[in-house]
Amino acid sequence: MAGEGTRIADVITPEVFNPYVDEYIVDHSRLRQSGIIGTVPGVTVPNGGATINMPFWPDIGEGDQVLSDSIPLVPDKITAGLDIAVILKRGNAWKANDLATSFAGSDVMGAIGRRVGDYWIKVEQAILLSILKGVFGSASMSDSMLDISGITGAGASIGRNSLIDAISLLGDAGRNLTGIVTHSAVMYDLAKKHLLDPRVNIGDPSFTGAPEFQTYLGRQVIDDDGCPVETVGTDKVYTTYIFGAGAIGGAVGTPPVPTETERDALGGNDILVNRRHLIMHPRGVKWTNASLTAGEATPGNIALAKGANWERVYEQKNIRIIAFKHKIG
Predict the structure, then answer these.
(1) pTM of this structure
(2) Which is nearest to 249 in space by CA: 5, 25, 53?
(3) Measured between alpha carbons, how far is residue 98 from residues 17, 68, 119 in Å?
(4) How far apart are CA 217 and CA 16, in angstroms?
(5) Which domain holds residue 311?
(6) Could you read off the pLDDT of 285-312 as tens digits, one per residue?
(7) CA-CA distance, 12 to 237, in Å (whole number)?
(8) Which helix H or strand E contains 19, and what residues bound it?
(9) How many domains does the chain have?
């Protein structure tokens, strides 16, 4: 229970609480610190609507024309493409009992804000993994996935050569892939194979800098046990994602009422409500809105994970995400 005479409404000032939580997420989310999620110039989350358009100019073709003193050049046509991002609207509410341990000490708002910030970091990770499942469930993204899980024997396991093979799916654009998100079991397997680069400051309790990462070939490795794991016969098949910086376009909006508190007098509980509007969009794979879960005005994670809701609109090399299905061992 909350301390006697102390209520959430006494310590939560929405105008201060909301930016504190947003800043905490940016500073502590490994996905954001890694650069995988980046801002999109000129894109903000609107107050209304379910999607936002992101027009783009496709690459100009590689062909040229031979100059002549008698034959004029023939202009090529450049047509703008259209990428579409979905606006994600999420929220949750907690009773004072859920936050009871935050009512100790002097910085009560900060303590609650850190707990709420950590909650939203986990929510963002779950959203991203649902999006990736849907994106690579789309037939339009089949050439951006390497699946070696069906190979017999050791050839099905992740290793130096197979990771390079996955990166090479983008050809000369593979150099733009800077991060790896994988299951912790895969990261430990890579560590046992001595494929991870040494980390600096590891084990140093005085180090207070940005979150530390393992790296492979200079690419940051983020472990998340929400990454897909399938059981195939007696084997486990893992999906690892390889990203380039800014592969996920991110933006945070302001709901009409982001934070509010209320008192449940009959139950004797204080209630904190927190809402967020955000965009987490795989650049170049548009949202089609083909299959929403019944009753949802904006997609939940089940809808985000459906391949029918995604369609590639960029050239394959310009989409800085690769999926890699494999075993370990």
Answers:
(1) 0.84
(2) 53
(3) 18, 77, 13
(4) 41
(5) 8-57+80-326
(6) 999 998 877 777 789 999 999 999 999 9
(7) 45
(8) helix 14-28
(9) 1
